[in-house]
Input
Amino acid sequence: MTQSYLSPFKSKLPNSAISIFSRMSLLAQQQQAINLSQGFPDFDIDPKLISLVTHYMQKGFNQYAPMQGTIELRKVIADKYKQYYNLHVDQNEEITITAGGTEGLYSTIAALIHPGDEVITFEPAYDSYSPSVQSFGGKVVPIELLASDFAIDWNVVRSKITDRTKLIIINNPNNPTGRILSQQDILALEKIVEETGIYVLSDEVYEHLVFDGKKHISVLESDILRQKSFVVASFGKVLHATGWKLGYVVTNPMLTAEFRKIHQFNVFSVNTPIQFAIADYLSDISYYDSLAPLFQQKRDYLIEGIKSTPLQILPCEGTYFLLVDYSKITHSEELAYAEKLTQEKKVATIPISAFYTSGLNQNLLRICFAKKEETIRKALQNLQQM
Output
């Protein structure tokens, strides 16, 4: 028998398994339940946008786009920052089109993190952050934020900083909590960056989904943070087309050059006809103004229906997710209760414990309201039988 000298495969992510989103969506499918777990709209995108995609395909825009993205789309993004933030963002040197927000996050982390570097995250945190850091040999330093306000204690943040701290990741507005950072939060972060030189990765994919007259504050609005920050954004969230996987990263020219070194060897470039179609569609910049009212109406409809259940509602300032507390019903662990709700009431949600490294149980579930009113109504009818 020939002796094998092949060593066992060593996983870079030995503790990673199927995501909670895939797990709950699969259970929803098996149980024929209403899926309010995974964050995707179940309503159609604008037929005009679909027509524009078809138009550009038929016009022959079907080969590689420029690595940094089409100039038409980058110009539309620069115009948006001028209109909504009164900022000049250079369309050539500061904007890169990516294969969705997740590629933007991953390529940013790849550009920054070396083995042994430490990255501060705030939990509950979106599930791609930690594995991305770990895959490049970085160490995640999670800071737990607790219900109901999920406020950041910046003194705690300072206590976690070491000479190995390379990056702080923020998500504003935050998935899953639905909270937004205040001006005081931004100023505290600014002071830390000014004193330490730490970089910031700001996940701002829900920037246009902020409710009740509140304002999203981008790190790009701070002169200090802008020099050390990468902002990740997503067209999937604003165009209701998560399956298109198109986003972008904004950072200063020096950091853009480093980001593009990774991006070009990751995906190189992204979907050409859709870039042209989105640029055409968003040339009417007023489109962005329709987003907050649309999703606030859905949020309010869901909240009003939940009031007649034993579930307690936590504040939702942005995103298209609402948190509910089920502690008046049971103190079962969140995953077990989410599965029970899917099986017995035919409504799938996400346990917030999945967003904590420690699996912290606070009797909380995340509900996605990026759905048709009909879908939300059916889910409420089931929940009202609790």
Summary: The CA atoms of residues 199 and 228 lie 5 Å apart. The radius of gyration is 21 Å.
